[in-house]
Design a protein that fits this description.
This protein has about 550 residues and is α+β, with helices and mostly antiparallel strands. It contains 17 helices and 22 strands. The chain has helices at about 45-55, 60-70, 75-95, 100-105, 110-125, 135-150, 150-160, 165-180, 185-205, 210-220, 230-245, 270-275, 295-300, 360-375, 390-400, 445-455, 530-545, and strands at about 10, 20, 35, 230, 245-250, 250-255, 260-265, 280-285, 290, 310-315, 320-325, 330, 335-345, 350-355, 380, 405-410, 420, 435, 460, 470-475, 485-490, 510.
């Protein structure tokens, strides 16, 4: 799950940062769509399937494949190596398709870029969760430069007119320089990167700035899956996710064989008002077919300014595909929706908790009282597909149901990151709970589910959760309004269990193949077995009372 990451304002454990994130562990959410990973099928090995995706330059899908494999076999060196290569390619492409990166950062003078690099290293040294291997961070930067030199987006931006002979001369000098590097600390790293920049200027005739920026971004990428350099546009998108508002269509997609499958449609979004439903397929975006389209390409095609139009060709089932024009608009993404009574005779309430964002506790209170007035006697909280969000929001949500004790604990290298979040509400809801999770429930979702499990407050139903058990902080940088997302701590459930690479195991395991729609069916029309199991558990809890 590439870059799935995404928290509390001025949290006690991260008071120096703007945000302390439990972190979204989902595929990057653009300002208009969220794209789910494509899971390759078949009997081919992970490396064979990955090679096929790499040959098609589908770096995002390859990265997803390798990350999923590493969750099951984290010590596989071959998969780890291909993962790192795919990550460098994927992040490079994202940067060079980011207008704010091209506008704000590539325009820096080399001295400014070096200062920015030094600032990034200082943030890592001060706040990262683990001790830093400066040699390793610099080696990742070396590999980033090697890949960038041969990547079309980098070459188009910086190497036009540079002869193959000059590129070869640079590669040879660079290889010699890299072999002799010994990096003990961040001062050594800065001096080495300055030397590589000078080599590029001498051999390639280019400004050192883009080379320095590869080391800057590479230093953060080398740390872990969730740490990342954020351009000013990406930083703005993170804040938008936290606030729950975007500009776009309001659809959630994943790649399919011949088209883009719509997995979910945000309530009251332009897409919903146009009549698009989960399970529909997008066949064309403008004049471009979506057959074989990567998730990155889909995001680029569907992005656009507020009040601009996008032309789609959409198919529903076996019906004739229909052309549609949809206007990209400001969207308020609901933290909670589909609040309803599923079984009136037993008083079984239901709500879908999409993300933990700034307004979640307010929305949760409103939903609970709404269901209470309708006769709720038990409650299903659906966290399937919830990628996480604000640490504080997940703690506040759990506090509505846990009378006392620890909700979650964070532990980091810096003692300021060590904090125990405890129940504080004077009164709580005592309605029997069922919590639905799946393999895409991550981060803040796992904080909530883990607290409910350890306090014996809910029955957990579904599939084992993602296993993203770290906290990220958002740190502003002086350069061009950009920032860093750094892992600052690990979090643990009330019983002290780690979440990283472990997840939350359900009490009732249901092996379903697809995420549900809001109609109680999976996108292909099959029954939602997890919801059916949760409903039975909820009915039993009412009967026992």
């Amino acid at each position: 799950m590439p870059q799935r990451s995404l928290v509390s304002f001025l949290a006690a454990a991260c008071f120096w940062s703007i945000l302390a994130l439990a972190a979204f562990a989902a595929t990057p959410v653009s300002a208009q769509i969220r794209i789910l990973p494509e899971h390759a099928q078949g009997s081919l090995s992970v490396l064979q399937r990955g090679a096929g995706l790499e040959n098609q330059r589908r770096w995002g899908d390859a990265l997803t494949l390798y990350e999923d494999s590493l969750r099951e076999s984290p010590d596989d060196p071959s998969v780890r190596d291909r993962h790192d290569v795919a990550k460098i390619h994927y992040d490079l492409g994202r940067r060079y398709h980011d207008a704010s990166f091209r506008r704000d950062l590539l325009a820096q003078q080399p001295a400014e870029a070096l200062d920015a690099y030094a600032e990034v290293l200082l943030k890592i040294d001060s706040h990262y969760v683990a001790n830093v291997d400066w040699q390793q961070l610099t080696a990742w930067g070396n590999r980033s430069v090697e890949i960038a030199i041969g990547e079309p987006c980098f070459a188009e931006a910086h190497l036009r007119g540079v002869s193959a002979e000059r590129i070869t001369a640079f590669r040879q000098g660079f290889a010699t320089l890299a072999q002799g590097q010994v990096i003990h600390d961040r001062q050594d790293a800065r001096a080495y990167v300055a030397t590589v920049g000078q080599l590029a200027q001498r051999e390639l005739g280019v400004t050192p700035t883009p080379i320095i920026l590869e080391y800057l971004c590479g230093a953060v990428d080398a740390l872990d899956t969730y740490s990342a350099y954020l351009t000013s546009d990406q930083l703005r998108d993170v804040y938008a996710q936290i606030d729950g508002n975007f500009v776009g269509l309001g659809i959630e997609l994943k790649s399919d064989a011949d088209a883009l499958l719509i997995v979910n449609v945000i309530t009251d979004s332009p897409a919903q008002r146009a009549g698009i439903k989960a399970g529909d397929h997008i066949l064309r975006v403008g004049p471009k077919s979506t057959r074989g389209l990567s998730t990155d390409e889909a995001a680029n095609l569907l992005q656009g300014a507020e009040n601009s139009d996008v032309n789609l060709l959409v198919a529903t089932g076996q019906e004739e595909p229909r052309p549609m024009t949809i206007r990209r608009q400001h969207i308020e993404v609901p933290s909670i929706d589909h609040v309803k009574i599923l079984d009136a005779s037993n008083g079984v309430g239901y709500m879908k908790l999409n993300t933990f964002q700034r307004n979640t506790s307010r929305d949760l209170d409103a939903a609970l009282w709404n269901l209470h007035r309708q006769g709720m006697r038990s409650l299903i909280i659906d966290l399937r597909g919830n990628p996480g969000g604000l640490l504080s929001a997940s703690v506040e949500a759990a506090d509505r149901f846990v009378a006392q004790g620890t909700i979650v604990s964070t532990r980091g290298r810096n003692k300021l990151e060590d904090f125990d979040y405890t129940a504080r509400q004077p009164s709580v809801w005592r309605v029997p709970l069922v919590v639905l999770i799946d393999s895409q429930s991550a981060s803040a979702s796992e904080i909530f589910a883990g607290a409910m499990r350890d306090h014996h407050r809910a029955t957990i139903v579904g599939k084992r959760s993602y296993g993203k058990g770290s906290v990220q902080g958002i740190f502003p940088l002086a350069a061009a309004g950009c920032g860093l997302r750094l892992t600052t701590a690990k979090f643990y459930s009330p019983s002290g269990r780690p979440i990283s690479n472990v997840g939350v195991t359900p009490d009732v395991v249901v092996q379903t193949a697809a995420r549900p729609t809001d109609a109680g069916l999976t996108p292909d029309g099959a029954p939602d077995e997890s919801l059916s199991a949760a409903l039975q558990v909820a009915r039993n809890s009412v009967a026992q009372r």
